[in-house]
Amino acid sequence: MKPLSFFHQRPFHSAVMLADAVSSLWGLSSCEEHTDIYDRSIKVGSVLLSDNTVIAPGGYNGKEHQAVGIVFYVNRDTALVIGLKELGCYQFSDSLETVSNIANDAHSKSGMENTAAIMASGIHSPAVEAVRSQLSLVSGWALPSAGELRTLADNLSVVSASMRIVKGDAFSDSQYVSSSQDGSSSESEQMYYLSVSLKNGYVTSTVKTTPGRVRPVLRLR
């Protein structure tokens, strides 16, 4: 029996609505013969749809649903989603300048804040431009921080399995551009950004004008 509650959910725009969505999203038939194949909570590997609802990968139907991303991190009322498409190879910036108000470490999950700071700085970032100009039915995408990319690397096998189900692009073995600068010193902040390998989570200090792979991230809360 197909649970209709999967297909008619409200978008969530707050912690309360997210909690409501979690509690109702996986609502299932009470028939005794029903086999519980769907998750009852938003978790790593869940699929974000174009109407801002989230379903388990086992409930995804390409004829009925339009996926836009895969959840790769969940903590209380916050979830992070990675986009389905590789956007190409782009530079962090086309000049060697320091961007203020960025979390310059390899741990912070601050892609949205970092992206906003880069945009406000007036420094041209081809990577951020690629993220902001992509065509998507969902808004709010950002260039992920190094911490977010490392978290994605930790959960890559689960995310990749869901990505195959929704026919998203495979992840590259090349380094990915993060929105984090190298905060080791004032000179390194000016010269380098942190690129991340999703294959092993390895972080590399990379000259800002060196292109890397770009994949957008979205925060749900």
Key phrases:
221 residues, alpha+beta, 2 domains, 5-stranded antiparallel β-sheet, 3-stranded antiparallel β-sheet, 6 helices, 10 strands, disordered N terminus
Q: Can you tell me the number of structural domains?
A: 2
Please give the count of helices.
6
Summarize model confidence as the mean pLDDT.
86
| Residues in β-strands, percent | 15-25%
Q: For the CA atoms, what is the radius of gyration? A: 18 Å
Basic shape: elongated
- Which stretches are low in confidence, meaning pLDDT under 50 for 5 or more residues running? 1-40
Largest sheet: 5 strands, antiparallel
Structure description:
The N terminus is likely disordered. The chain starts with 14 loop residues before the first helix and ends with a strand. It contains 6 helices and 10 strands; from the N terminus they run αβββββααααβαββββ. The longest helix is centred in the first third of the chain and has 11 residues. With 221 residues, the protein is an alpha+beta fold.
How do you describe this structure in short?
The chain is an alpha+beta fold and 221 residues long.
